[in-house]
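Researcher: Checking consistency across runs. Here is Amino acid transporter transmembrane domain-containing protein again:
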Amino acid sequence: MSNGNKNYQATLTVENFSSTTKLASNEIAIPVGSKESLNEKDELYNPFDYRQVEHPTSTVGSLIHLLKSSLGTGILAIPNAFKNAGLIFGFVGTIVLGFLCTYCVHIFVKASHVICQKSKIPVLGFSETCGAVFEYGPKRLRKFSTAVKYTVDIAFCITYFMGNCVYVVFIAESLMEVFTHWFPETEINVRLYIVMVMGFLLISAQVRELKHLVPFSLLANICLVGAFGITLYYMFLKINPISSVPGFSGFSTLPMFFSTVIFAIEGIGVVMPVENTMNKPQQFLGCPGVLNVAMTSVVLLYSVIGFFGYLRFGEGTKPSISLNLPVEEIPAQVVNVLIAISVYLSYNLQMYIPLDIIWRKVLSDRIHGTAKRHIGQVVMRCVFVGGTIAVAVAVPNLEPIIGLVGAICYSTLGILVPAIVDTLLHWEGELGFLKWRLIKNIILGICAIFALVAGTVQSLDQIINPVDK
């Protein structure tokens, strides 16, 4: 049983946090006690006062972490998302989706704070918050709390596995662009490039400690910034008239627009570890607040890049805008090489999250002995890499994979889950006037399900029936 006088320490700090470390792994058991609504005594408990973080993050540092989590390779796919929506609709739609994702983060973090008050626990991770909301929610649903927690963990594993499949294709296509230019007589399929990358991934995958991955993250960010700077040069080298592209592309391709933008912007998994390790967590929400400043910056940047990227390359915009650059020019070749290096260095950081879940919750208690545990780690990592390579070889088309990950994974974790959490938290007499909170969350759920179903159907159709462009 927990009590208000006991100090808990977060099991994850962001001392070594990177742009791709998005899992809050605060494994804290939910205490067994009263599950009724928050009372006056509960309100006196301030979880912020009981947080014990060995290396707390400053407000500025937390802002940087949130920016890094959303400013990744997804930004290269935003102009292609605009192609699926149209110039004007894409610009407005990106801002709306950015607001929607930010709002969902707000309600999820607030729900976590309330549950921390009820359970007298200073910090909760993403899956722990989801499980706790069921534990303290309607009595008929409390028995599902453990299952919900495991389900969310599985969803995280699937999300990052599929994200790594996207990374593999990014690497292969970037390298193929350069090698095809220099050696045009060697007609090598992109699938062969994917297989050749596997050996390098198997080697880097054996780095197990998060702190040892910090140099990988630093170098990856440096490469990405360099590549992005050169890409901007080519984007603004020529600005076509707005009339050269449609303002609205049509309804048939909208699902791919929604899925791609959600894939690029969404980073809800990073929220809890950043918020949980802030030295002033009360500055995370609110106005301006760390979250609002970070997401406003990200959404505006994505809107501008998508707008001018699509305006520059029009209907010829490719799944990654780097592939639109004139490969015969050295700077464009440098972009593709830098992107390949950046994504390669980020791959291991992405796989850290699902492998950490799998090892701690599935394999760790079943494998005994130092030698066996070492072999188990090696085998687990090799299987993971092999799985992502297999999927990438089967579907070496970047656009539908990005759409599929955005539709299935990020729309569920980023929009649907927060809507459910907020509903259950306020279910008993706190739904507001005319149950506005319930209506609002139903609308959010419908949006998430639309992105899930429509985006998945269109992505699978492009996978099954690929069109050469």
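Researcher: Does this match what you'd expect to see?
Model: One thing to look at in this run: The chain is about 65% helix and 0% strand.
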